[in-house]
Amino acid sequence: MRKLQVRRLAPTIIAPDDDPRFVIALARGLSVLRAFRRGEPGLGNQHIADRTSLPKSTISRLTYTLSRLGYLEYSPLTGLYSPSAAALALGFSALGGLSIRDVARPMMQTLADRIGCSVSIGVPDRGTMVYIEHCRGPGLLHIGIEIGAHIDMAMSAIGRAYLAGLDPATRDNVLDEICPPEPRGDAVRLGIQRSMEQFSAQGYVTMAGEWKEEIHSVGVPLTLRGSQPYAVNCVGPAHLLRGDFLEDVGCNLVDLTARIRRAMSSD
């Protein structure tokens, strides 16, 4: 049986500045729900403990409680937990509350149809970006992107575009959290720095084979007044997204984000 790859997602939860209003038990329960990822058959208590940095004894109580509340399902056959329909409903409620999806989708689909590649919007989730909307182009080759999928923030165009939209101090804080230890961390930071310089010069960032050799992508930050920051990207096969066409798509994404901002501000 192939061993489940476990990625540590968050350190042990500490109340910010010892804030007495901060409910640690609630934060821990939510960290358990956030430990699950698409495509996994389920997680055991030890897997969840590894991902959240919480003691296994604490995880056992949390998973039991979440199961009794109906947010987790337990399989006696596998000994694994998985999110229930009730937990899924929370995610759909959150997606349904994002009006940007309804505003941006028609414009995104028009662009995807014109350039023949996928166009998506993502939001940050710790060290990853989560896709909240995705429009496919008419090309035969489709990248495995779905709404709700996560992608590494540091190694994707959509993630680096999000970083480009942050103020320098906030960006440095995020980089301290997402960059792995040396020596790989230095190489990742250098790549991100090149992307920041490209964004300053061109208004978009490109990734040519850094995520996957056969995939090229372009990303642009999308900042709306009074809202969380987003990022928009276009992903396609390397033989199509290259050279002048890659730059063309970058300019189209810049125009797309400007039109989304105008549409959102007029609502």
Instruction: Write the element-wise H/E pattern from the N-terminal end onward.
Output: HHHEEHHEEEHHHEEEH
Largest sheet: 6 strands, antiparallel
Q: Write down the overall geometry.
A: globular
Number of strands: 8
Mean pLDDT across every amino acid position: 84
- Cα(first) to Cα(last) distance is 52 Å
What spatial order of strands do you see in the largest sheet?
5-4-3-8-7-6
Give the count of helical stretches: 9
Structural class call reads: alpha+beta
Query: Helical proportion?
Result: 40-55%
Strand content: 15-25%
Query: Over the alpha carbons, how many angstroms does the gyration radius reach?
Result: 20 Å
- Poorly predicted spans: 1-14
Strand and helix map with partners:
Layout: H1 24-34, H2 45-52, H3 56-68, E1 72-75, E2 80-83, H4 85-96, H5 99-115, E3 118-125, E4 128-135, E5 150-152, H6 157-164, H7 168-178, H8 184-202, E6 205-208, E7 215-222, E8 230-237, H9 243-266
Antiparallel strand pairs: 1-2, 3-4, 3-8, 4-5, 6-7, 7-8
